[in-house]
Amino acid sequence: MLLSIKYYNILRTSGIKRFFSFAASQNMSNSEGNGIVLAEVINTLEDFAPKALAESWDNTGLLVQPYTARLITKILLTNDLTEKVAQEAYNHGCEMIVSYHPPIFAPLKSVVQSSWKERIVSFLLENRISLYSPHTSWDSTQGGVNDWLASAFPYYEATPIIPGVNPNTGAGRFLKLNSNISLTEAVARVKKVTSLKHVRLALGCGKSMSDTIQTVALCAGSGGSVLKNVSNADLFLTGEMLHHDVLDAAQRGISVILTNHSDSERGFLRGFSSQLQNKLNNQIQVLVSEYDKDPLTTV
């Protein structure tokens, strides 16, 4: 009797292993010949922006990985992952979402239906959609979010404000412009690159809209901690800053342009979508979310 139970358990265990192996092979075969494996997409993303470039406090990389692997044929890019964006990815048949901001930041103690972030994780797992977040690695890398924001201006030199692992990477950018431009023109250029109708402006003490600027210090997102120690810039550009940091800059004669946090980042996705698709040899389709937007509007 003991021998029979032993062999029964062996057979049962091996049967379970065969079942999961068979299920995985069947699910992969559904997309056979189409798309690429998840690991290849991640390698491509991290060739562009290695995880080592991210800030130590950040939560970057692969955040959600379904149990059963799928080939990737469509990726949805978004700045923020909300429930509407997750549903959008599902409706488009995307097997992967790349969300610039990590929706999982503070540790999750459960994955139930009581909070919107937990519902997103549950939804992604149920529908076998992977989630990757680059966040500050995209800020730091050359050709990333900060360099996209810097493209608003004609400059001959751009250096990280807080250097990273090499001279071309790091937090923020300090720009030396090719020629002087007025503050009026600077505002127009920022509106154009971000596709915004309105921005917020604090005039530096003693400055006017016709005054010219030669240097710009910028940081996508919430740039106060990066910009506050910069003393030799004519203009600060970021998404948001604390009131007292804006006040301090203005009193030191530095004008400040604020776009709202994610509006200083989101526009990067438009250009990066085609760049990523090309890097993956056009084997997949890379979409940009139509539902992703900054929660704040000017009314």
Kindly describe this structure.
This protein is of the alpha/beta class and 299 residues long. It contains 10 helices and 13 strands. Strands 5-8-10-11-12-9 form a 6-stranded mixed sheet. It has a 5-stranded mixed sheet with strand order 1-4-3-2-13, sandwiched between helices. Helix 9 links the parallel strand 11 and strand 12. It is elongated. The N terminus is likely disordered.
Task: Give a concise summary.
The protein has 299 residues and is α/β, with parallel strands linked by helices. The protein is 36% helix and 21% strand.
Cα(first) to Cα(last) distance is 78 Å
Structural class: alpha/beta
How would you spell out the order of helices and strands?
HHEEHEHEHHEEEEHEEHEHEHE
> In terms of per-residue confidence, which ranges show pLDDT below 50 for 5 or more consecutive residues?
1-32
β-strand percent reads 15-25%
- Rough outline: elongated
* Helicity level: 25-40%
Count every helix, treating DSSP H or I runs of 4 or more residues as helices. 10
Number of strands: 13
Mean pLDDT equals: 91
What is the spatial order of strands in the main beta sheet? 5-8-10-11-12-9
Q: What's the main sheet like?
A: 6 strands, mixed
Radius of gyration: 23 Å
Features:
single chain, 299 residues, alpha/beta, six-stranded mixed sheet, five-stranded mixed sheet, 10 helices, 13 strands
